[in-house]
Write the structure tokens for this entry.
Amino acid sequence: MNLLIARIAYGALLVLALPYALLHLLWRARKQPAYLRHWGERFGFYRIKTTQPIIWLHAVSVGETRAAVPLVKALQAQYPRHRILLTHTTPTGRATSESLFGDSVLRAYLPYDYRFAARRFVRHFKPALGLLMETEIWPNLIGACQQRGVPVLLVNARLSARSARRYRKLKALVRVSLGQLSGIAAQGETDARRLQALGAKNVEIAGNLKFDSTPPPEQMALGKQLRETFGADRAVFLAASTREGEEALILDAISEAATPDLLTVIVPRHPQRFDEVAALLDKHHVSYQRRSRNQPIAPTTRVVLGDSMGELFAYYRAADVAFIGGSLLPFGGQNLIEAAAVGCPMIVGAHVWNFTDAVRQAVDCGAALQVTDAPALARRLGELLYSTPRRSEMAAAALAFSRAHRGATQRIMRMIAQQLPPR
């Protein structure tokens, strides 16, 4: 597909997607009313104003926003004259930004990638530098930045095989967009190769920013408190960042594991599913308590529903073993780095294409075990809960794995300094 045809196809897709985008906002607003707020920003209309020069960083949702914490802190220290603008796509990402950074940053929604909206965004904020997190290749936005002379870096970049196949459908346009970037900081070698195969230049392997996110002391203290609340003598299994359909498989697995007095903590990935998971537990007649009610855990309680935000580090600190969700079913997996940072033994499923390199390295060094299905999860869980020495070995390996992969923030900051010298 040549460039002209690719541009026409992309423009047509955007036109066709507009009704869907509006309906999607309305549909999501049924469970998250925040989707009804700030609609104008999604089309390039902003009320935010500042007299300071802006460094703009785009973090789609919760995971990207949390990963950006060490980078935002480094930017604020290195560029005190500038104001950081964080853009998001989801209300949960925006709420996470508010809880992490408060008024120390500006925040807004990134506009949809219509040419008029992208131009309005760049014209309004006039960023001195743009940083796109992970897998955000928006042709019109990147093009608008180039037209206004705004350097843009793709940082903490990752590209799964599935995403690479999707981008290849508009390869000519994607090649141009990647060529307009001032640089790319890839998480790993696999990501770098896939990006280069699409036409990316100036690709450096910087590592994963998430390794630089150290557990906050208050979260570690909360984790210790949670462990006491859960019961110091009870085995605690954490199912973290679970996705649709996985909770039922988790219930099957803990039943098959047959560990006496086991307490399972289930933390759904998306907060809008808290009530859905509660209904599932009711349907299966499982005795459970909600974390949000902050009550002592009864000895008869089998499951704690982690319906709270921003406490994942604490949950990992309180657990004996953690399953990393989104991997038993084909969702691509979730980040295991927070678990490693607190030395929590990990089990992951087979579907981990979003974190292929990190999972492979964690398994190779003995920090994690990989399973194919729920029965295999049950077997591995039973083995680990039975063997304290094995858990201790995995915990030490997880901590070593986490420490060995730090340093991405410094590497990215060096790339940023080439585009925006500190003053």
Q: What stands out?
A: Residues 3-207+408-419 form a domain with the Rossmann fold fold (CATH 3.40.50.11720). The chain has a mean pLDDT of 93. The chain has two domains: 3-207+408-419, 217-404. Residues 26 and 376 are 40 Å apart (CA to CA).
